[in-house]
Amino acid sequence: MLILFLLILPLISADHNNNNTSIIYIHEELPPNTLLLQSISSTNSLQWLPSSYLYRIYFNLNQNQSLYTTNQRLDREELCERNLCNCTYCVLTLNFLQTFSTNNISIRTIQIVIEDINDHAPTFKQSFIKLSIAENVPIGYEIPLESAIDNDYGLYSIQNYKLHPIINNPFRLIQTNKPVLKLIEPLDRELKSNYLLQLIADDGGSTPLSGQQKIEIIITDVNDHPPVFDRTIYQQSIPENNKINTVILQIHANDRDENENARLSYSIEDSSSTFRINEHTGELYLIKPLDYERIRSYSISITAHDHGIPQLSNYAQLIIDITDINDNSPSILITNINGSHYDSQPISLSECAPKGTSLFYIYANDEDTNENGRVRCSVNDTRLNLVYLTLNAYSLQITGSPLFDYEAEQFVINIELTCKDDGHPSLSKTVLFHILLEDCNDNPPDIISSIPYNETILISYETTETPFIITQFEIEDRDLFQLNLFSYSFTVTPSLDLSLTNNGTLILRTMPLNLGSYIVNVTVADSGNLTNTISIPINIYSINETMSSRKLRMENISLVLVLSFFIIIFIASITIGICFLIGFLFRRKKKSPCLCCYSCFNIQQKSIRNSSCESMNSSNERADSLQKTTIEVLDDGINSSNRIYQYGAKEANDLKVVNTRGIDRGDFSYSEKVERYLTHLNNGIVGIDANYSDDGVYGSSDLSSDRIQKFSIRPPSIISIPSSQQHYQDSLKRFEQLYSFVEHRQQAAFTSDSLYV
């Protein structure tokens, strides 16, 4: 026995991912009572969870908290066939409830990975088969053969096929997922009417295991066209609640022969007997209920054969996938804190239980998969909360907000736990459990006073005799099972000679020296040291002082009203004076001199009106010596040598017009001369008196040649005026250039700074 254990020990290995999960790797076919994991828990508190009950036939948890195998044969292929584990990677998940203390439990998970060993040899459903082939089949004709079955997986499953004999055999084996015989030489029934072959299937073990099938091929010479299916592989998905005796799909094959040689019959190989096929029409029917949780797919071999002589047949593969529907409601398991099963009896809970106190442990499970198997649980009381522990495992705890209140709920509280899945439609299950509340000292005493809240007690100094009973309190405590023993204390600000008896009577023993307001804070404590405080304002007053203060108050009110009246009159007077001052300044600002010269310059009138305007301007200049004739010189911002001259009027006492030759001219004759030039220019008069000479009045600088060229276009009203005096022509040309600039709105080319000459 010791030698056997030493041989098995290398087959077992453990891996601890974390404190609550262990992974054990073992091989299948372990002997009974093999130790897998020793001393899982030191507290002797492991319990199987319901989700792992089905594994107890294979594993045993003894009193020492060690995990052993049982007498049940641990066959990986059987576990895969029963859908207890994945066929590719077989993992059994064992969940235990581990209790360390009343408030400390956890879910202990042990994952057992079962690795395959080469314990199954390949087998064929039939050890001997007969096949009929017409002698006129062409070279390359293929005959599908039955695949061998090996319950092992991976390398230990079927790896290759071999065909014997090779010599004097016109068939060769094609190595595919399914063995196929291929004709490589023409057949001749007269030379050889049958062939005996042997098909061998080998697996991939270190010492390969094999299975054999004998094949007899009979050569015929009549029916030469086998049936041909529409597809070599048919695939169909149906829900697990598909109705019985309904058509799933129809199989169809063709035969190019005629009459009996073309009449086909269909058959299937279904080991589960879940389906049947109509041999004449090829319609496939469901004859047993489906269960996705038990079997998720079916692989069926379909045969079509004709009725010729010899009979020809062909094969196709049908794969039927079962889809899950939400047909299983969640199952709920409730356990007490100590790990025992909840027996539907009410549990006791103190109303002062702290936040986070656990009441139950809840485990929910759904046999469906994906969303149909995803479970969500909730309770109908916000004072309780489900705390997630692990997959589908919860702890029912107190949230602490709002609190349980025994005084408001003196009865059994019914709690509904509802678990529902995420399927469509969703299925749910509800469990009812009961909580019996117990009282605790959680309410401070209530102080009941005959005096309204925050109302001041008035005590007359002259008429009150001491000791004087101020008030008496009544105490109530809402805690029903607490002793009605209360203690009293008080503080008073400022100091006052008071006393408070054990029955809640507040007494003023002597009158104070100082009159005024006092605040008395009375505190009452119950046997559990819960307190409550009430504030009582007291005003001790004198009757004589009260009458004097009222008279003084009336006199002060009269004085305030008189002062307010005079202040309003003063403010109104100031406002009216400011308004008159603003109006006076506004009227002075609107007065300005009449610039007749400027008006004569802009009005496009005939020469008669211009002459009258000139004479009026001359008379105004003689009458008012303050109005001076000016020429405004605008400098070009680009070139300081480029200037434009404008005529205007300015009010200045000391302003004189100076020409470029430095000769001082009289205001009247000079102004009149400039006005005459501008008037003739605006009215388009051709001839100008030669007596009016320029005398260099308009400056010594011209515009640059490029700007003269740019504004060389003159309006139709301006023409060249012939004159024998060249400087007169130059002066008129400058006026024309000025007019062109003004007419084309090019004033922006000059700076805002002006020189007055």
TrEMBL record:
GO terms for cellular component: plasma membrane. The chain crosses the membrane at residues 557-586. Its main location: membrane. GO terms for biological process: homophilic cell adhesion via plasma membrane adhesion molecules. It is found in: Cell membrane. PANTHER family: CADHERIN-3, CADHERIN-87A. Keywords: Calcium, Cell membrane, Disulfide bond, EGF-like domain, Glycoprotein, Membrane, Repeat, Signal, Transmembrane, Transmembrane helix. This is Cadherin domain-containing protein. It comes from Rotaria magnacalcarata.
